């Protein structure tokens, strides 16, 4: 049986076959995408020519280290494909993302991409979204009041300001993350809309109707492709 890291690697390496010569792709963030970048770096050494639009400073740095050409979204006419990880994937391909704190750029890049392929280990497949705390990116000003307004919606039992190494976690765009413990999200569309109505909320980790396909890797080495639309 494969370790968790080996399973993630399987998904990342498999997804590299979707990246065609001469294309520009959006590249997600996280420990599964790490393995995709690693594989693409190998293929670039062997002659693959690609440009990537990173969804975080971390991905930009990893791509540069792997000698992959990095561009900004503003310089791109059209994105045909983005590949990213996820924290939860439901049977219809609705997602929770942002466990790594890069949800804002990830969502912008995904929203302008014709295709979004999600790579993940099978632990990310869920019947209903919500067990994984939903990350919500907020501006730092008034975050306590915003936190309370999210609690007041009644959708989440607890809302915690994310910390890392004993300090408040700051996103690439200098915002905070509020992790919302909802347990079960019965209507992800509704929750996403309600959260967006709260002044101070920049973006939510609910990625609705964005994923076109998931590549799921299993402990026994099996890889499954699930098409969503
Ligand atoms: C980053 O902000 C996230 O959206 C990641 O895509 C997600 O957390 C999955 O990351 P892993 O591949 O590390 O589990």
Which properties best describe this structure?
229 residues; binds arabinose-5-phosphate; Rossmann fold; Alpha-Beta Plaits; 28% helix; seven-stranded mixed β-sheet; 2 domains; alpha/beta; 28% strand
Secondary structure topology:
Blueprint: H1 4-15, E1 24-27, H2 31-45, E2 51-54, H3 57-65, E3 69-70, E4 79-84, E5 88-89, E6 95-96, H4 103-111, E7 113-121, E8 134-138, H5 143-152, E9 158-161, E10 163-164, E11 167-168, E12 176-181, H6 188-196, E13 201-204, E14 206-207, E15 213-217, E16 223-227
Parallel strand pairs: 1-2, 1-4, 2-3, 4-7, 7-15
Antiparallel strand pairs: 5-6, 6-14, 8-12, 8-13, 9-12, 10-11, 15-16
Helix pairs in contact: 1-2
Bound molecules: arabinose-5-phosphate.
CATH class type of the largest domain: Alpha Beta
Secondary-structure-derived class? alpha/beta
Major sheet description: 7 strands, mixed
Just name the CATH architecture of the largest domain: 3-Layer(aba) Sandwich
Radius of gyration: 17 Å
The bound ligands are:
arabinose-5-phosphate
SSE arrangement, N to C: HEHEHEEEEHEEHEEEEHEEEE
Task: Please report the number of helical segments.
Answer: 6
Number of strands: 16
What fraction, in percent, of the residue positions are helical? 25-40%
End-to-end C-alpha gap: 32 Å
Overall pLDDT, averaged?
Answer: 98
Number of domains: 2
Task: Using the coordinates shown, work out and report the CATH topology of the largest domain.
Answer: Rossmann fold
Strand order of the largest sheet: 3-2-1-4-7-15-16
């Amino acid at each position: 049986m494969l370790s968790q890291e080996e399973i993630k690697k399987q998904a990342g390496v498999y997804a590299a076959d979707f990246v065609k010569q001469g294309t520009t792709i959006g590249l997600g963030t996280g420990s599964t995408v790490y393995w995709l970048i690693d594989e693409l770096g190998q293929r670039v050494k062997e002659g693959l020519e690609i440009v990537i639009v990173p969804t975080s400073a971390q991905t930009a740095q990893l791509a540069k280290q792997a000698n992959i050409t990095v561009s900004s979204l503003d310089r791109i006419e059209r994105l045909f494909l983005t590949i990213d990880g996820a924290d939860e994937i439901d049977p219809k391909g609705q997602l929770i993302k942002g466990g790594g704190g890069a949800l804002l750029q990830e969502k912008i890049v995904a929203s302008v991409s014709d295709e979004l392929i999600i790579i993940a280990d099978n632990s990310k497949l869920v019947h209903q979204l919500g067990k994984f705390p939903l990350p919500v990116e907020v501006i730092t000003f008034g975050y306590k009041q915003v936190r309370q307004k999210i609690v007041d919606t009644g959708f989440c039992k607890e809302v915690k300001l994310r910390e890392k190494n004993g300090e408040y976690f700051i996103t690439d765009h200098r915002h905070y993350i509020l992790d919302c413990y909802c347990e079960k999200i019965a209507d992800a569309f509704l929750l996403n809309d309600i959260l967006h109505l709260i002044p101070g909320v920049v973006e939510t980790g609910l990625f609705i109707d964005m994923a076109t396909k998931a590549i799921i890797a299993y402990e026994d080495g099996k890889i499954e492709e699930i098409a969503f639309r």
